[in-house]
Amino acid sequence: xxxxxxxxxxxxxxxxxxxxxxxxxxxxxxxxxxxxxxxxxxxxxxxxxxxxxxxxxxxxxxxxxxxxxxxxxxxxxxxxxxxxxxxxxxxxxxxxxxxxxxxxxxxxxxxxxxxxxxxxxxxxxxxxxxxxxxxxxxxxxxxxxxxxxxxxxxxxxxxxxxxxxxxxxxxxx
Amino acid sequence: xxxxxxxxxxxxxxxxxxxxxxxxxxxxxxxxxxxxxxxxxxxxxxxxxxxxxxxxxxxxxxxxxxxxxxxxxxxxxxxxxxxxxxxxxxxxxxxxxxxxxxxxxxxxxxxxxxxxxxxxxxxxxxxxxxxxxxxxxxxxxxxxxxxxxxxxxxxxxxxxxxxxxxxxxxxxxxxxxxxxxxxxxxxxxxxxxxxxxxxxxxxxxxxxxxxxxxxxxxxxxxxxxxxxxxxxxxxxxxxxxxxxxxxxxxxxxxxxxxxxxxxxxxxxxxxxxxxxxxxxxxxxxxxxxxxxxxxxxxxxxxxxxxxxxxxxxxxxxxxxxxxxxxxxxxxxxxxxxxxxxxxxxxxxxxxxxxxxxxxxxxxxxxxxxxxxxxxxxxxxxxxxxxxxxxxxxxxxxxxxxxxxxxxxxxxxxxxxxxxxxxxxxxxxxxxxxxxxxxxxxxxxxxxxxxxxxxxxxxxxxxxxxxxxxxxx
Lengths: 173, 472
Hints:
The complex is a heterodimer. Helices cover 30% and strands 31% of the residues of chain A.
């Protein structure tokens, strides 16, 4: 009796309690792991999607010339596999600091500067070659348009500056 | 021990089950998902690499030209690469042009290793008429984003960019040769290209050009240069006896064609002396009569030996030496010792080409001319000379000029008796009119005879104006 009294709970109950604890801890660990893996996969997916978009974005300067008034006419063709948006054209003169050839793109004018796959966009850059230089370098920065898309419209491109693709083009004046 | 093992087995089994559940329901799907995503990424990388590789492998050759039929710009496209190329747009920049972009009327795909594709008004919108004096810059872009510039920059109808050189070798003497170049069609449509004859002075670019040439040398080589636009041409070359088969040329750069009409040997008869002798002529230009002074010496005389090699000569003579020799007359066997010829050893000339005539100047001085006059003979001879092609020594062929004789005359002192009619020989005051008259004439008075009407005054005069010549 003393031995029974000292035993407390039965082996069955003890086993049930231990099993419950084990199951609870197991479910907790399972839940944590599942949550972590879900978040990790989301981040990985987003990163991968952005990288793929960056690789699918391919812009080429099909033709460019400077007219008598110093305006550069750029014919840009989307030769890639995703729509792209021109976010900035920097003009690097022979001497001096680079300046904006066209104002940086904001979320509101993304559609105006978006080139669909295979299509052509003519952009005019004013004041190029005004310093008497023999040539300038145009640095065209663009981004895959789908990276800018939000539920209500478009995000500011400069929030995704790390995904910009840069194309440099030497333009004879 | 058995009881203990039984007590631990429930949670161990459950723990193992839970661990397995985590592995199979979370970690393995996560790994599979990541693996798939990674595959997608690598597929995108591969796709981009493929695109870049295709851009590198894409190779178009673009040329700008025009059609002489309508004067409209044409663009010739050749696919030199291993991939098909879709033309996306054409750019034509001309002086004063504001819209260089030209859209295509239809989709144009250039298959690999294709022939020449002609882009004309039926393929491209608003291709301009090529005007004289206007410069055109032509570019063609592909759907892969590459732009190809036509190397004819700028394209100018008055200055075709390429040279077509037609060389006619070993032409025969005295024959007419002709070259005719005509623009033709590449694809059965309009003719493509135009020609301007270089050095013709004309700036017009024509669909046909013809040149005729009369060869004035044996084995003459001549290159005719035409300035041409890129295009297709037919080339016909002929002489009086033979017409070469017509050739079709696709000109996309400088081109040269050679036609050899067959070599004519330097000595066709086998006897070089006879063959060259028929073409070589030596003439002597010497005075027939010269005067020597009272000292018996002539002034320095210039003698020219004219050596002429006819245009029909088969070869040029190198290191030709011509000497001028004196021949003694029979009447005075030592006459030539008094004839000094300069240069004594003759005159050397580097080469005498077919059709070339040279006049070689010798000088001679004659001394010790006898009072009754002398004469001598001159003859020019070729003492050496080697055939340019045969190497034959023509100095052994006895080529000489005809003998030219020259009379040398010497002026002889003589006394003349002059009769002068005067009014009277002298007057009562002793003035001698006859002597005065003779002195005025440079003579001396001999005598004066009074006569009815006019007196006769006789003067003795000395003169050296009467020459005495040696007659050959």
